[in-house]
Each structure stands twice: as C-alpha cells, then as structure tokens.
Amino acid sequence: MRPGERGSILRTEGNDALAGRLRALGFVRGAEVSCERLSPFGDPMLLRLRGFRVALRREEGARIMLEKGEGHENHSVGRESELREIRVI
Amino acid sequence: MKTIALVGNPNCGKSALFNCLTGGDAAVGNWPGVTVERKEGFSGGRDGLRWVDLPGVYALAPYTPEERVTRRFLLEETPDIVVNLADAASPERSLYLTLQLLEMDVPVLLAWNMEDVAERQGITIDKDKLAGMLGIPVVGVSALTGEGIPEMLQAAEKAMRQRRQGRIAWSRKPLPETLREMAGEMERQGRRHSLFLAAERLEREGGWQEEAAEERYGYIGRILERAVQSRGEERDAPFLDRLLLHPAWGIPVFFLAMFLVFHLTFGASFLGSGLPAPGVFLRMSAERGLEMLAAVLLGGMQPCFFREFLSEGIFGGIGTALSFLPQMLCLFFCMDILEDSGCMARAAFLLDAPMRRMGLSGRALLPALTGFGCSVPAILSVRTLETERSRKIMRFLLPFFSCGAKLPLYGLLSAAFFPRYADWVVAGLYGFGILAAVCSGALLHKIMGQGDGQPFVMEMPAYRLPRWKNLRRSMNRRCGDYLGKAATVILTASAAVWLLSRVTPAFTLAEGEESILEWGGRMLAPLFVPLGFGGKDGWKAVAALLSGLLAKEAAVSALAALGGASGIFTPASALSFLLFYLLYPPCAAATAVYWSEEPSRRWRICAPAAWLGAAWAAGALAYQFFSGIWGG
Asked: What is the rounded distance in angstroms from the CA atom of residue B105 to the CA atom of residue B125?
C-alpha cells in the first residue's frame, strides 16, 4: 500500500504464529485498513486499523489480502506499486 | 492470600497500575513490551492481595515468549481473579483478549484505563451496558492518578467469591461438534479451562483460527455498536509525526536529538556559551562536595598507612565513581523523556530497514536502548525478539552498546585528554560502539546463513507528555542501583586494587619495590604495547582494565587509587584505552547473565573471545593511527 490508500480486508493467509498475531490485532475479513505513511526506506509501513496504528513490513503485509476494488487487480497490504487499472478491451 | 493476575495488551498501563497498587518500582515505558517477565507485589497489609503483573499480550497464544509466560501463568497457577486492563482509546482491539479470557474457567474483571485520553478522542464507553453483555464486572480506573482503584478492588472482591465457567458467546453459528466433544472429554478428566483449551487446539490444529478470529471481531463489533460511542477518529499529534517520521528529516532529527542529549550531559561549553553543560556542572559540584567531605572526615588524622588507605583507596576510588552519578542521571533523564514520550518507538520505525541488514528488526531497538543503561536487563529483554536467531545476534551485540557504568571512565579520560571536545569524544565513543555493533551484526547475519527474517509488527504508541512520576521512579531505581554497587563491588575492588598496589609479592609493604599489582600488570603489559600502554606505567592501565571486569565503574576508581590517569596516558593511548574499554567483555554480572541466557555452548565460549579480540584490534588500530598524527 502507499500513503493515503485504504482498503477492506478480504482475508489473512496462513495458519502460523504470524497469521495468529495479525488476526489477534484485528487483520480479519471486513476490517478497514489505511496506510498513513512509509518509513524513509519505503518499508515498513505505518497502518491505521480499528482506531490504532501499527507498523508492518511489506513482507508481513503480503499475507493480508485486500478486497478487489472495482477495476483493480486483487492485491495485498504488502503491495509496493500503485494501483493499476486493468484495461478491459 | 488471594492472587490477582493483571493481564492486558502491551503498553496499556499494567505496570503503572501495578506500581500504583503495590508501591513497587517496575519499569514503565511508552513502548510495547517493557515487561518481559512476570512481577509480583502485595497490597493491603495483613490479609492483603498478591498481584502478578504479566507481560502484555494481544492474544493468549503460545507463540511469543511474552504470550507463553502469560498463558502458562493463567492456565497453571490458578489466580483467584484475572483483572483485564484495557486501553479505552482502542476498545475494539482490547476486547479480543477479553473474549479469550472469558473462555477460561476463572472470574474476570474488565478495567478500562486512560478513559480521559479516550474521551478527548471522542470515545465513551458505557460500562454498565458492557458488563451486562459480557457477564463480568466492568470498571474504569486511572493507573496514573489511582482514581477508581477502590471501586475496582470492591468489584474484584465480590467477583472473586463466585466461581465462573468459561463460555463462548461470540459465535453466531453453533460451535463445531469437535470442539464440544474435546471440551466435554477434558471436563470428564477434570481439567480446568476445558473450553479454552479445546478452542485453542481446534484453532491451531483444525484450521479454525481464521473463522474464530473473524467471529470474535464480529461479536466485538456488535457489542461496541451498543456500548461504545465514537465520534470519528482524531489523529494523534500529526504535526509531530510530520517532523519525526518525515521521509528525509526524520532520521537526521533523531540523531540531532541524540547529540543534544550528549551535549547537555558532557558539553564543556554549553551551546558555545563558555559555561559548562548542566551534566558537567552537576559532576563538578558533586566532585567538590565529596572532596570537602573527605577533607573534613580525614582532617584530624595523623599521616599513616591507614590514613593513606582511607584517602586514596576508599575515598579516592569511591569518590571518583560517585561524582559521576549526577552526570549519569542527567543522561538517563533525557533518554527516559525520549522513551516515555513515545519518540523512541518512532525511531524503531525509522531504523527498521537498516536493522534488517543485521537480521534484526526495529523491535531490537528496545534491548539496544536498555543496553545504554545496563547490559543485564538488556540481555534479558532480548527475549522479546521473535526468533532465536535474532536473539543470538542481539545478545552478542549488546555489550557494544555502552552501558551507564562505562560513562564515568569516558567522562574522566575525555575531560583529562580532550578537554575542549569532551562531548564529541563521548558521543563518538557511543557512536563507535553502535558502529561496531552494526558491523558485527551484519557479519554475523552473513556468517549464520539465510535465516527466517524477523517479522516486524509493532503497535505505534500515542505521544504523551513524559510523566514526572515515571521519571522520578526510574531515577530512584538507577540511583539506588548505583549506590548499592558503589558500596559493595566498587568499594571492594578499589580497596583491593589499592592494597595490591602497596603490597609486594612477598607480602611486605612496597617501599619503592614492585607491588603485586605491578608485577601482574607487567606480565600482561607486553600484550598491550601495540595499544600504547605497555610502558613504565602501562601496568596501571592493565590493572584498571582487570578491575573493570568486576564492575565497569571499578576501572575509574582503580585509576584514581593508582594516582590518577594523567601520568599514564598520552592522548593517543587514552583513546585506544577508551576503545578497548568500550568493546572488551562486560562486567561479571552481565557476562554471567549472557552465559545463562545463551543456550549454545559454542557461543558462550566464543563470544567473550570475540569481544576481547574486537577490543584489542580497535585499540591497536586507533593507537597506531593517532600516535602517527599526534606524535605519541
């Protein structure tokens, strides 16, 4: 994600310690998450979720899938690039 | 005696409440994960209560070390009640843990902390409604002022008397058949917490976790709708974050702040005014006071061996160590302000990417900063890191972060040999220690091969004004520790060093002949010739280093007992001595903790050798380089 973007979570993948931790923090289906800013090196990100803020690396963010927006490809919180529109020919 | 367990999310104020209740002095910081181990305290006198402050967790899973400590205590030690402290400013996340606690067979009390902060953010919690929905008492407290504590105790007393069965209210669907079977089976075996244990096993092994987490948050959403009012979200001090977390300015501002702290503590000319910085002024005043005290106490004594022992061995040694106490407190006062305000957590966010190069994460900044205070708690706090690989690396690096006890020697030698640049020299030493840690960390990361990366998931605490109460408590603790050490280890070491420097190997008084210390020092001195202190008085430097292995401050008192540093060093050899002292193995206590924490035997043996090797190499290089420039 990039600063200013927001999205709704589709699901958090995996069944290990990290997934458990992310879910306990509230990264579950339906939660709204937005990206506030990036660290100077572009990673980690500072996210806002359920009224609090959490720092997360893109690597961990890749586990969290976001809802597919209209005309957008499916993407995760860890995605680095800007949203690209899929052109329908 | 009744036992009360204190449970809650990281950084929700458990330790502050614990201190408030028991009059204890547990460390409090605006940083998730300050409490690693459980702490115990008592309140209420004769038939009082036993309080157990558990490490902060988001869930009762057995993954991180904090979670394991908390989970095991709740499952195995059967507290009479669990007081669940929750941050009123983020009720949604806090209630996740509450729901898990409700699955256990134990009375639970929910206490909302920091309601005033929440109210300023537009969040109000209807506690009565919540109590009705959750089926447990719900109260509000202030861990800061102690407000609401009598009411909380009353509610806890009442709840404690009743038995409570664990239950799952959050599932909209009927509970899975396997869960009910498992729980029923455990109950027949007479196990407590059967429902919780069964749910946990199903989540972990039966792939139920995702659904359970969604259902829990769904339920929380439904109860919050009815019991919590929230008027939009207010951004937390965005102007401060715009500066401190700025992509370009964030890191320079952080380093500037750190330099200011050192300037404030060690600057010979404060902000170029020609006046000493507050830290230096405090040290000079303490020095003068202690000198006057010694003069008064020893004034009436006839010159004799015993008087010399008292004035040089005892007062000289301890006095020098003590005179640095105010300066040390000044440094930690500034550091505590940065930590308590939430600035240090920002630094962890800024510096995570470089730390990853060492196989660490921004979270490793907490042990590192603790290491600037004392290596012993720092090595213990390494447990909060997620993987054993990163714990190994961090434990090894910690002695390179100059602990507070090394400060007196830095202050002494930098003021004696680089009077105009003392603050730069001391800041440089700290910087060099960090650089050494960074380089050896990167090296270790490479040598140890590809490991699983350390995940970095850290809640960003809100800014807050540093609390005078926390600062004072932390100062008191540091002061007490230092005085305690001065009265025991430093006193003994400095007296022993002085005596050994006055007695010959044949146990007669040295009158110009070689003393035991000189003899021993000379044996080792050839090893230190490349570092520039192998000459006539070099043995004194070696003796100081040896006593520094007992306690770092003892090196200063040893130098003082041996007649001061000025005759022993040149600027170049003083610098190499400082570098050696910076990197060589930590004090006996820290080494012992390292040995007990490090599971691998190879590391236990190699680490001290590596510290010594790094120290020697750095000292030798510095001496060869600077003695060439400055001419000896």
From this structure: 26
